[in-house]
Amino acid sequence: MMEFEYWWLLTLPLFFTLGWMAARVDIKQLLSESTTLPAAYFKGLNFVISDQPQKAIEAFTDAVQVNSSSLELHFALGSLFRRTGEVDRAIHLHLDLLDNRELAEPQKRAVKAELAQDYLKAGLYDRAEELFKTLDDNRYRQPALRALLEIYVREREWAKAIEIATELERLSGVPFRKEIGQYYCELALTSLLAADMQSAGHELSLALDANKNCVRANVMLGDIEADAGANLAAISYWKRIEFQQPEYLGLVAAKLLKSYRALKKLEDGIAQLNEYASTYKLASLLTALYEATLAEQGAENAAKLARNELIRKPSLQTLDQLLQARAMDESPRSQVNEQDLQLMQQTVRNAIGNRRAYFCDQCGFRAKQYHWQCPACNAWESLPAEPNEAIN
For position 35, what pLDDT does the model report? Predict the structure, then answer.
């Protein structure tokens, strides 16, 4: 459920009109009530507009005391309570309406919708879930389903989340394929922790059925095969990522090399990474390629690789690799020449203050490692596959 939009308060007389017409109340009575709003109401509006929520609460409390029959004023006050973190007061306010008022059925549903928001804000998920489930009419159905989905994701009830997301997709026309794929991956992770490989494999297949571009499913399927010693099958799954979202290849670069090494085909693995790096120019691929080249082909070849990348795109990370390779190369040709010094100086000038991190494109959360779900806003696949470089 979304928080109350305060500018709607400006149109409360119109809402009074619609509500009372629906209740078949005489239009003259409606006009009388909408034009006799207490002065505290307008005072409260002023405080809302000027972003003074505590003073707005005081004003709307006075307005409710003057016009205690107005549900809309109660809802505005309850929303302000939620906004300022006084959720217990919002709960008390709405429970009092349910317990001590004779309300028509539509009014009861409106109060329950507000109370459900209170419980959700307070983290009382069981109570919120119970109320949201009762809001099944056209007016509240989709917001209630979205709130239920939030609850199930927070409580990691993935099967229920899949059911609700599927229903939301049907009702709203808004796709939830990405989210449903991730929910199946979470189910598979639970199965893996229980050593139930068969269920995990089935759930990952369902993830790909829900979202053919679910990279995480192929990463996990490859991990399962690699753990079982089936390295060819693992490589096959990881290579499929190129045809889903190639920017994620860096997540499996080290895994690919490990499986190729287990098959005694490391040169084939390095060649594969070379092909990916040349095509997609991903920093993580280049790092994996550098480390493999350093380990298998020596410091001189690794230095050449780092030097070529510095020419193409200066960065502190690549400069560090070049310096590392130069330090390890004991041949006479390893001495740093004038051109390398110029490259290093140019790189330092371009990259002073440079930091690599993953930034959520929904909330801006900064992470040092990749997360499929943002730890801050819970959005799925909102972190880029490659870390970004930003100036602090």
Answer: 42
